[in-house]
Amino acid sequence: MSNFIQITPFMHVPALEPALAFFTDILGFETLFRANDYAYVEREGAGVRILAGQGEDGAPPGNRRFAYYVDVRDVDALYAELKPRLDTLPPRDVHGPANKPYGQRELLVLAPDGNLIAFGQAIAGFSSVP
Fold it and tell me: What secondary structure does DSSP assign to 57-103, as a single string?
């Protein structure tokens, strides 16, 4: 039996409440644990650890250099489910679903703190070999 279970990204945010609202109200995650400025959210076995911090102990604010990639089986079904909530975001904060030249179909959503959340699935039959 293998020892590794999963990789869980750790997202640093300036404030916990807006991040939790984004993950639960917009993306459909559930808060499984919360204590002070920390929360663990999960959806279908995919988890994200969120830590709020400012000042010297905080991480720099999110920007598009940092992305959290969630592999899904059907990105179009996820988009259809989330669309009513995604429509409440600024249009420039949602891109896709769209086929990418590297063989993935992706939905990109910019979180309020500037972190980029990407949902993607492999495009069937894609080959990077000419």
Answer: GSPPPP-TT-EEEEE-S-HHHHHHHHHHHHTTS-GGGEEEEEE-TTS
For residues 49 and 69, give the distance between their C-alpha atoms in angstroms, rounded to a whole number.
Answer: 14
CA distance 113 to 30: 19
Query: Taking all residues of the chain, what is their mean pLDDT, rounded to a whole number?
Result: 85
Between strands 38-43 and 10-13, the pairing is unpaired
Domain spans in the chain, listed from the N-terminal domain onward:
10-122
Look up the CATH number of domain 10-122. 3.10.180.10
Give the whole-number percent of the chain exceeding pLDDT 70: 84
Q: The pTM is what?
A: 0.74
Token couple for 106: 């992706």
